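Good morning,

Attaching, inline, the backbone tokens for the sequence recovery test we're adding to the shared suite. The designed sequence is right after.
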């Protein structure tokens, strides 16, 4: 299976075999990710990090992944301190950076930005989120988390929160369609999953149900995937205020769930998961954040062609 020089833009282009190969490779990387073993697999390679939106976990886990494998990182830093502030186009920025780096990880507020970047780049582009579009590396770490902490085949999962603007849940839905998932969508009416995505999932044979209430919808699921209501995606602040606190998880909410239920969240959270939930055996979101390191190590090693 050849990943060398491939762009990682959207989960819609991944087959189950491709996903399984990445997850298996990530499992082999986990000891290195935890610092238990050293590696120079990417020695001499440089990753260009271009983030046009704020990020903690995605940016730092990519940097950690590169450094753990012996590579180096070239960070654009603040957009205001770069030539972008002078009006340089994304296409020109990509053309410049691909002369400095062996691969580029890009986060951008505009949907389709990663696809555009791939058209102008001679090195692999890894999409770290493009507006309300796609976030494939987050999806792959989510799948890895589910595989490690629960099970993928025949999974019953509830996706809750901002399903309209949430790029993480959009990508995850498509990926789960390869594994025969039963998907419950929980959101206020204003933030429902786009109809075209639901129709796509149903055409792939996925059983999809929708509701606006968490309880009792989560009582029979294996995984609850919570998301933040994303204030920055709302064109009208008044519309955000209407839905800001509609879905929240507390210890009381979990009284009737399966003992093995795992709660995931791409983070950051605001108030949708109460802090006391962290101490329960259901909380899985901090493990999830770590799992981004071995998954991104696997992706970098694969697209840079040092492993197959």
């Amino acid at each position: 299976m050849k990943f060398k020089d491939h762009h990682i833009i959207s989960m819609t282009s991944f087959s189950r075999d491709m996903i399984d190969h990445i997850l298996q490779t990530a499992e082999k990387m986990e000891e290195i990710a935890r610092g238990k073993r050293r590696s120079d697999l990417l020695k001499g390679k440089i990753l260009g990090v271009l983030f046009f939106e704020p990020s903690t976990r995605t940016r730092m886990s990519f940097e950690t992944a590169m450094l753990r494998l012996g590579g180096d990182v070239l960070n654009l830093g603040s957009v205001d301190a770069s030539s972008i502030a002078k009006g340089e186009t994304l296409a020109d920025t990509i053309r410049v950076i691909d002369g400095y780096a062996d691969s580029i990880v890009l986060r951008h507020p505009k949907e389709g930005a990663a696809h555009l970047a791939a058209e102008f780049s001679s090195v692999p582009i890894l999409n770290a989120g493009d507006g309300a579009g796609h976030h494939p590396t987050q999806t792959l770490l989510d799948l890895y988390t589910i595989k490690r902490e629960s099970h993928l085949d025949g999974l019953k999962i509830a996706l809750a929160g901002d399903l309209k603007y949430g790029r993480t849940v959009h990508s995850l839905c498509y990926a789960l369609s390869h594994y025969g998932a039963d998907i419950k969508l929980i959101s206020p009416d204003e933030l429902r999953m786009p109809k075209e995505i639901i129709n796509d999932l149903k055409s792939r044979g996925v059983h999809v149900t929708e509701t606006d209430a968490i309880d009792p919808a989560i009582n029979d699921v294996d995984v609850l995937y919570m998301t933040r209501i994303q204030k920055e995606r709302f064109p009208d602040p008044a519309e955000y205020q209407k839905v800001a606190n509609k879905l929240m998880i507390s210890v009381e909410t979990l009284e009737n769930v399966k003992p093995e239920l795992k709660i995931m969240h791409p983070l950051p959270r605001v108030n949708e998961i109460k802090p006391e939930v962290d101490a329960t055996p259901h909380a899985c979101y901090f493990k999830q954040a770590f799992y981004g390191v071995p998954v991104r190590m696997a992706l970098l090693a694969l697209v840079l062609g040092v492993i197959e």
